[in-house]
Amino acid sequence: MYKLILVDDEEEVRKGILKKIQWEQYGFQLIGEAENGREALEIAEKVTPDVVITDIKMPFMDGLQLSEVLKKRFPNIKIIILTGFDEFEYAHRAVNLNVIEYALKPVSSKDLIEILLKAKTQIDEELSKKADMDDLKEHYVKSLPILKEKFFTSLITSKMPKEEIQEKSINYNVCLDGKAFVVAVISMDQGDIYYSKKTEYAKTLELIKFAVFNIATEILSKYNMDNVFMYNDQVILISNYSEEDRIAISNKILPILEEIRQNIKRCLMLTVTIGLGTIFSDVSLISDSYENAMSALDYRLIIGNDRTIWIEDIEPSSKDKIVFDEIMEHDLSSAIKVGTEEEINDILDKMFDKLLAVKVPFKDYQIYLLEMLTTILKVAKNSNVDLVNVFGENYNLFVELYEFNDLNRVRKWFKDISLRIWTYIIADRQDTCKLLVQKAEDYISRYYSDSEITINKLCNYLHISPTYFSFIFKRETEMTFVNYLTQIRMDMSKELLRTTNMKSSAIAKYVGYSEPNYFSYCFKKYFGVSPSEYRNSL
């Protein structure tokens, strides 16, 4: 039952309304009557009604004043205004005060029941939506640990754009702020798990994994390090720091990892080896740090188990890496295919700035540049660019690339070849569009007299989609297909009216209108006069 208050300063009116309706039959419980707005407000403060039926004119506080206060204090209450004929327009001009209906007094029981049922439907829907939202929130809270773990897994197994990482970090309450990021992998030494007779934990592999994870989590929580999860039977830690100094960071993280390793050995009587990856200043390179941490674990074969191995101790050159990844390939390809000259220059500047910011072996520079050049040539091939036409018969871009010894000159060269390919693609696309529009115009000129001609028929003939055709046709002709067809038909009908004695109905059929009356309507709308008026004016 939804709670309801009836407010009217005339007792006779109130009693009349009360007798008219069997409230409970329609899902309402009358919990109070009031003679004015103040009295109604006191009742509402005590019982919080779902619906208030109120007159407008009342002493002390009228119906609109009451509605305004109720809206502020109880925004979900539905209000039904009862008003006399002379107050009706005034009531409708009032601002939105949660009023769902205005009823003229005296209101019939039938009208009031309809209004009440409308209010009940609204409240039912709102409560249903709220319940659905509450269920969704509860499900989200329960699913959050799983979502966080999936997010962490995505960070170490794939390249994610910074914007996506930041957005998901906020959604999943994960802290990834900072200037430096590094991944550690805690891996159980399998020999201890399967062959140790010293510990009861060896009975169950799952229990051992849980115990390792639990010890690591407890120790890391002391240092406010929460980005820890399981992946492929290993414990993964993603650490972030507000500083960029590698030595300072390693001096912080290595003792913590050693504490974890020693506690696992002491408590579980088994050993683990921990691999620590490269420290990166870009959050989107967390997956690279993970790969390097896994590479560090590979050195167990050489230097043994039961230790923490930092990849930068074993492979000093790995601290600076330059990788032309899928995101870069996509951005460069997209800029050349559908971007602007400014976008092409910007993306190439970012790539070369990244190249200049690191110190890597010369072969790494060459691989990076070769991958960039390969991407550009793939775009040209997929766009049917005639490279001989663009660069000349004796072009060999790979040979030219190896002749440079200055990265800034290479940057200028990359911009030049990218813009030349881009210019060719743009020109070819424009020529193709013009040819399509010309074919469309020829088709319309031949078949405008067919009353069944449609844009879909035309697009089937041209072998393109209606959406794309509409875009290029309007861009080239500054007219829609329908407007262009109408212009052709109107111009031809005007010519026939001027040069022949054909009847208007015959002309209508000739230019593609199956209904003469509709032809006359279109003709007058287009030229401002009817076909007969036009012919008579000649």
According to DSSP, the number of beta strands is 10
CA radius of gyration: 39 Å
- CATH C-level label of the largest domain: Alpha Beta
Give helix % range.
55-70%
Largest β-sheet summary: 5 strands, parallel
Enter the CATH topology name of the largest domain: Alpha-Beta Plaits
CATH-scheme architecture of the largest domain: 2-Layer Sandwich
Proportion of beta-strand residues: 5-15%
Query: What's the average pLDDT?
Result: 85
How does the overall form come out from the CA principal axes? flat
Show unreliable segments: 192-199
Features:
10 strands, alpha/beta, Rossmann fold, five-stranded mixed β-sheet, 4 domains, 24 helices, five-stranded parallel β-sheet, flat, Alpha-Beta Plaits, 538 residues
